[in-house]
Amino acid sequence: MLSVVGPVAAGEVIEERDVGVVRLGVDDAQQVVPAGRRAAVVGRRAVVPLTAGQLLAPGQVGDRAGFPPSGLALAVVGVEAGMLPAGLAAGQRVAVVPGIEPGGRAATEEDAKLPDPVLGVVSAVGRPESASGKGAVTVLVEGAAVRRVAQMPEPRIAVLSESVKEVS
Which sign does the torsion angle of CA 43, 45, 48, 49 carry? Predict the structure, then answer.
């Protein structure tokens, strides 16, 4: 069977180095791509984000991305190196919350005008290249929340447990 060797974003062309072969028995071979079909996969696009170690399924490969799903959007949040949660990875539930602008300030009436937190799922994490740089966290959010994310001063990422349904 074909497996994904490294992450491939939705819409990216799948290259030879992105797929590997694993040997295992499966109950339903129609749910995975056999190793002999490698040529039918390489050069096509990932329809959805692919993660390292997953078995490749036929519906994950196509001519164009089918991601993000209808009604959802990808928002990229720039986060300072020291503010990235340890171990942050694709698939984690998070809240994007407004931070305090550089220089800090006391709580004011302006804080009441800050955008509400936005819940989402991490799609990708780009670590900063230097200690003073920013990382890029791509978060899958409701389409209507994209503007709130874009308006946040110094956005922060908070990792949520499955039991958290709302953030205030």
Answer: positive
pLDDT tens digits, 51-73: 888 999 999 999 888 889 899 99
Residue 49: what residue type?
P
Strand ranges inside the chain, DSSP E: 2-4, 19-21, 45-46, 61-62, 72-80, 93-97, 118-126, 134-142, 156-159
Q: Check residue 84 and give its pLDDT.
A: 87
Report the relative pairing of strands 93-97 and 45-46 from DSSP bridges: unpaired
CA neighbor of 121 nearest in space, from 145, 148, 90, 143? 90
What are the distances in angstroms from CA 105 to CA 7, 76, 99, 134, 158?
Answer: 40, 26, 11, 22, 21
The answer to whether the Cα torsion of 143, 160, 90, 78 is positive or negative is positive
